[in-house]
Amino acid sequence: MLHVPLEQRLRAAVAAVLPDAPSTPVQVRPATDAKFGDYQCNSLMGLAKERKLNPRALATQVVAQLDVADLCLPVEIAGPGYLNFRLKPDAWAAILAATARGEHLFFRPAAQPKTLVIDFSSPNVAKPMHVGHIRSTGIGDCLQRTFRLLGHRVISDNHLGDWGTQFGKLLVGWKQRLDPGALAADPIAEMERLYREINAACEADPSLLDLAREELVRLQAGDPENLGVWKEMIRLSQVQFDSIYGRLGVQFDQTLGESFYNPQLNGVVHDLLARGLARESEGAVAVFSDGTLPPKEDPFLVNKDGEWVADPALIRKSDGGFNYMTTDLATVDYRIQTWSPDEIIYVVDDRQSPHFRKLFQTFARWQPDAAARTQLRHIGFGKILGEDGRPFRTRDGGTVKLGDLLDEAVERALHVVTEKRPELDEASRREIARVVGLGAVKYQDLLPNRQSDYVFSWDKMLALSGNTAPYVQYQFTRAQKVTREGGAYDPARLLQTTPTEPAELALIRHLLNFGLTLEAVAEECRPNYLCNYLYDLAGLYSRFYEHCPVLKAEEPVRTLRLALCDLTAQVLQKGLNTLGIETTEVM
Ligand code: ARG
After folding, report:
1. Whole-structure pTM over 0.90, yes or no?
2. Which residues, 6+ apart, have CB-to-CB distance to 332 below 8 Å?
3. Which residues of the chain have pLDDT under 70?
4. Most buried by CB count within 10 Å: which residue of 87, 101, 364, 420?
5. Given this model, what pLDDT does residue 20 score?
6. 368 with 277, same domain?
7. In this structure, are strands 82-85 and 153-157 parallel, antiparallel, or unpaired?
8. 328 CA distance to ligand 1 middle (Å)
9. Residue 289 falls within a domain, yes or no?
10. What was the pLDDT predicted at 22?
11. Which ligand 1 atom is at minimum distance from the Cα of 160?
């Protein structure tokens, strides 16, 4: 928070010394170690190097131009040219007072709001959502919440897999083997069964495969009966999706599935052919390498036994059907036409990274101007593993359904709550278990670096100590309780005191980094930064609370400490909510 005015003034000072704009940004960041002060700037050395100046001399000149005396003690030049800032004690008090008055919560809306499309979750119709969907859904939701909190315009879009060859087999199954009772009881399981059975039957009986192709062609040609069945399959799937999203508290602005782009696909292929960007190959249409990139970076080449061979992007199959790629090309085009976004973010499994590299390259060759205005970003993530280090599965080796997983999380949380708080009535225990159980699953998923695989562990995620949702949620209830008991306080009183206890100062310093953390999450699309920030905040609060009596302290210290409880509770709650996690008053 305070790094903002410091940074602005430092930039002004740098501009006074070096009138032509610096090419590396001048940044002020929280000090990595409190012995260097509260904030530091490491940018001047790079700047000096670039211009072949003596870094310490540059630092001295900049500091001479720098006016921060109202906020800081004299700025210190350290080592080859680091700047260390130590805030004056009353600067802390002033910022806490502004926060207590509700002027901000240690972050400010972006100076230049961006428009972002975030494509996430995007499950396939007629299949159950499985444990893997927690990743795209949770990371994507956290990103949309973070960008919105920072004042950006977000269009979240659930790119449902609601079109494709699987519907040929599904239609055959639906017409030949549908069990209406089973469909009524569990539509997704029934559709899954139909697909599995027909798929297996096709292996044994090629004529069935032909039938599936015919059904698909009729669907694509707009046959009313097939369209009706297809729509019903989507409707039934949407009921399932809505129930999961409802439980997870996830909302989308748009749900434009793959089928939405159907009318565009033909045009996309024709345009790419006409511009010479795609060509026919073995009856199909494909985009090949244009040779502009070194082979290692070229998404249209793969290395086979030491040789680079073509790995084209298919946009039309030899039977005339279109590909995943074709739909994605049409989708980029539509999104840019419709929303003129600065960025389109795809939160999709890392295994699809070759697809996205081809997509982004192909689009840039197809529409260079639009591609120059819009940044396309694949935000990938790794796998969820079981305790045995292999992909996470049910005990009998099946895929773990997301609905079952959420049930189990809440059920296990209920055990823990019942053990710790047997005196609470059942409805309260269930509500706490819901908040804690769902929070634990989400937090565990957001905590690791998103590109790492992680091991799914019920015991770890539900533990009340360690870097877990229940721990952070619990520290929130403690801070909230003191705040409640302390009652209203007068923010003006904060100006009559200066924090001096190390535990107070450490907590305040960390609170002030909330905005910087949110910006880093947005910049790099990394929710783990926020998890770790909240975990540290919870720990610092806990230490503060052990060392500093709050309600029994004399005024104005009481007000200062009460405000710290209040602001900590607010930041913990806002932070958890930004992760998509709820809080509860009692735990
Ligand atoms: N439905 C796809 C799948 O389950 C994910 C879609 C991701 N979004 C996209 N625009 N390709 O693999």
Report:
1. yes
2. 344, 359, 363, 376
3. 1, 21-23
4. 87
5. 80
6. yes
7. unpaired
8. 9
9. yes
10. 65
11. 1
